[in-house]
Design a protein that fits this description.
single chain, 332 residues, alpha+beta, Mago nashi protein, 6-stranded antiparallel sheet, 6 strands
Length: 332
């Protein structure tokens, strides 16, 4: 029972800050992702300011959705659906696409670069659908710990302005299928904006957007919570004892992997993204990597022993009866 309560508290804390339709997000007392203005290097800040002066010229301050694309080795561009106000009332929506005609390498390039600008209209049903999906994706914005920094690739800024206010999130070279699908839909609209006065979401793209919304409405079940509870119980009961029997390097790997498994399971429950098969695949991958790292041929073992290498041969019994196999039994 205590374990269920602990999971519930963690999930309440996470959802309080991420659910776009959850009123408790208004009263969240913790930190939220910042706009990062004061953390930016002066050189980067100057570059961003100059780029914005060029690329954002003619865009409205108030918009429904925005996608800013910044490739490492190509020109920057932005797609935005602007709200045009008259006497503080909505007059119309305008779809705008701005693209630099060349890359900016030095300060001198700012004065030389030009911007290609396109405008189009879109029906309100399509705009509302696109806004809803942007909100679903952006509301999952969160900080994640990662040992890998990505400097090359394409950086996307996704922003939305709806009933709950303005918010945005960044992603570099996205792997998440929902984010990639949304970007593909917007890229299709960009192609239309360059050649048509009126753009629309195709039936195929509408199905993709509808599916993203449908996925966001999926709720974690009691069976999901029970499975995660059992997994955490197995880890609590066996982690210390198992790590005390294995080498220091292996113990560090096991501890980090188990922590990752617990965090992944809890976060996916919180974001209603829990998938039993995906969690099992994660654990099987960790198990396979652990066993592979500790598996040596008889010849390799002899060489390690004779050379007095720093490599520590793990007890085969510890590898055979590892903690990850215990966890996987909970999926049976």
């Amino acid at each position: 029972m205590k374990l269920f309560k602990a999971i519930g508290v963690l999930i309440f804390i996470i959802t309080s800050n991420t659910s776009g339709i959850c009123q408790s997000r208004i009263f969240y007392d913790g930190l939220e992702p910042s706009e990062n203005y004061f953390d930016i290097l002066d050189s980067t800040l100057k570059h961003n300011q100059k780029t914005k002066e060029k690329l954002f010229d003619g865009l409205a301050d108030r918009y429904k959705v925005r996608m800013l694309v910044q490739p490492s080795f190509d020109v920057k561009y932005i797609f935005q659906i602007d709200e045009i106000l008259k006497d503080y009332q909505l007059e119309k929506y305008v779809v705008r696409f701005h693209k630099l005609n060349s890359r900016i390498h030095t300060l001198e390039d700012y004065d030389k670069v030009k911007v290609k600008k396109y405008e189009a209209s879109m029906n309100e049903d399509d705009i509302e659908l696109l806004t809803d999906v942007f909100a679903v994706v952006v509301d999952k914005t969160r900080y994640e710990k990662s040992n890998m920094d990505i400097y090359d690739g394409t950086k996307y800024l996704l922003g939305v302005w709806d009933y709950y206010g303005w918010r945005s999130g960044n992603v570099n070279s996205p792997r998440d299928p929902e984010i990639k699908s949304l970007i593909d839909v917007v890229e299709n609209l960009i192609k239309q904006t360059q050649s048509k006065r009126n753009v629309k979401i195709s039936e195929a793209d509408r199905k993709i957007l509808d599916q993203i919304i449908s996925n966001s409405q999926r709720q974690s079940t009691s069976a999901d919570y029970e499975l995660v509870s059992r997994i955490i119980k197995v880890i609590e009961d066996n982690e210390s004892k198992y790590c005390s029997k294995i080498s220091e390097d292996n113990a560090v790997y096991v501890e980090k992997s188990l922590n990752n498994i617990k965090n992944t399971a809890a976060k996916n429950l919180a974001y209603n993204q829990f998938n039993k098969k995906d969690l099992k695949n994660l654990i099987e991958f960790v198990l396979e990597e652990f066993v592979s790292f500790n598996t040596f041929s008889e010849e390799d073992k002899r060489e390690i022993i004779l050379s007095e290498s720093d490599i520590i041969l793990e007890n085969e019994e510890n590898i055979k009866n590892n903690i990850f196999q215990l966890i996987l039994k909970e999926f049976d």
